[in-house]
Design goal:
Layout lengths: L11 H12 L5 E9 L9 E13 L2 E12 L21 H8 L9 E2 L3 E6 L5 E6 L11 H20 L13 H8 L4 H4 L2 H4 L2 H6 L5 H19 L3 E4 L8 E5 L5 E5 L6 E4 L4 H9 L8 H18 L6 H17 L2 H11 L1 H11 L3 H28 L1
Parallel strand pairs: 4-9
Antiparallel strand pairs: 1-2, 2-3, 3-6, 5-6, 7-10, 8-9
């Protein structure tokens, strides 16, 4: 057999069994395979490896190619507290395996799906291997604004029934608390936001002609009351990591454009409106410019609301709009300056990396990220106003 050194040891008999299931060919025999590490796709320390296993085999006399994705979940020795034992911690390492084992990902909505899972196995080293269908992205590398809206529609169609009349699933690992756990984990970042050297740095002052320090610190001061209000909102089932790298376009045999959501490690119960994260991450990753933010907001929000209503939800749109605006404000508004701006201000190596990655000067990049933060803080202002009404 052909395989790369980077790949973990694979059992040929078990691999053959999974490929047969994936292809629906019960007498399929493997001729060769190659295992390649997809290290560029790993950003979560709970992911011990991500691999593409592809090769060829025979079904009788016909040569047939195959491919699978192997995702290894593990608990690193240096994992922060809570990742290994707290099932409602945002980084709980085994949640994706539990999500697939629950069956909740087998049928999401007519136009929203998760990759099919073929097998989950516990390994002697304590890791968990998740064997998944490989999904080929049929969409453009950069989504147009209307495709973001379509993804939001699909999420609304999935989450709406739970807000209408469908019973919520019951499982310990699905309990609420994801966003609160995230905010608590990053509370130490407040200290950096109080550093005068940061806000007075020439690069920061050039990027923010209108200062934002007070607005960010005010958001930190309000976080607990906002989280408490979010906890009182009606619950649905959430992905909790909706951003472009986790969403693929899938054109089925009937030419229907469906959305495939990858990486269910954050799944849990929460209020409707998590697709607000899709809006902000598009700005943070610079896929959409701040000048297009209002158009993107309208596309995502209106489509998401339509999806909820098509699924039978008849509630107060203000509740969902509060969650839609408060969720990205709490998840990113609190940490964005310290995580996305401060490192590039004080670290020349980081500056060079960013300039090489995006092909823009650090001044241009900081200006674009500042535009994203301005818009994010405007969303926070809207959430604050709606919270007063609610």
């Amino acid at each position: 057999m052909l395989s790369t050194i980077s790949c973990p040891a694979l059992d040929e008999e078990a691999l053959t069994s999974m490929v047969r299931e994936a292809l629906g060919l019960h007498s399929f025999q493997i001729d060769d395979w190659v295992c390649a590490s997809l290290t560029g796709h790993i950003s979560n320390p709970a992911t011990g490896g991500l691999y593409r296993v592809a090769g060829n085999g025979r079904q009788r006399d016909q040569r047939v190619p195959f491919s699978l994705i192997l995702k290894i979940a593990h608990l690193p020795e240096d994992a922060p507290q809570g990742w290994g034992s707290d099932l409602i911690h945002f980084g709980y390492w085994k949640r994706e395996a539990l999500a697939y084992e629950s069956g909740l990902l087998e049928e999401l909505a007519p136009n929203l799906k998760a990759p099919r899972c073929y097998e989950i196995t516990e390994q002697p080293d304590g890791s968990t291997w998740i064997w998944l269908e490989e999904i080929i992205d049929d969409g453009a590398d950069t989504w147009p604004i209307e495709r973001y809206g379509l993804a939001a529609l699909h999420f609304g169609q999935w989450q709406g029934p739970y807000l209408a009349d469908r019973s919520l699933p019951v499982a310990t690992w699905l309990q609420t608390g994801w966003l609160r756990s995230w905010v608590q984990h990053f509370e130490f970042l407040q200290n950096y936001l109080r550093l005068p050297d940061f806000w007075e740095h020439p690069l920061v002052q050039a990027a923010f002609p209108i200062p934002v320090a007070d607005r960010v610190l005010s958001l930190w001061a309000e976080r607990s009351s906002w989280l408490d209000l979010l906890d009182r909102m009606p619950l649905t089932v959430c992905h909790f990591d909706t951003w472009r790298p986790n969403l693929f376009t899938n054109i089925d045999s009937g030419k229907q454009d469906r959305t495939v959501a990858l990486d269910w490690q954050c799944m849990g119960l929460g209020p409707a409106g998590e697709v607000g994260n899709l809006l902000l991450t598009a700005l943070i990753t610079l896929e959409v410019s701040a000048s297009e933010a209002k158009d993107l907001d309208s596309a995502i929000w209106e489509s998401y609301l339509k999806g909820l209503q098509e699924a039978g939800w008849e509630g107060d749109p203000r509740q969902v709009r509060f969650c839609y605006t408060a969720y990205p404000a709490l998840r990113w508004g609190l940490v964005f300056p310290a995580l996305m701006i401060l490192p590039y201000v004080f670290n020349e190596n980081k500056r060079a990396e960013a300039e090489a990655r995006y092909g823009q000067s650090i001044e241009e990049l900081l200006s674009r990220w500042a535009g994203a933060l301005y818009f994010l803080l405007d969303l926070a202002d809207e959430a604050r106003r709606i919270a007063g009404e609610l």
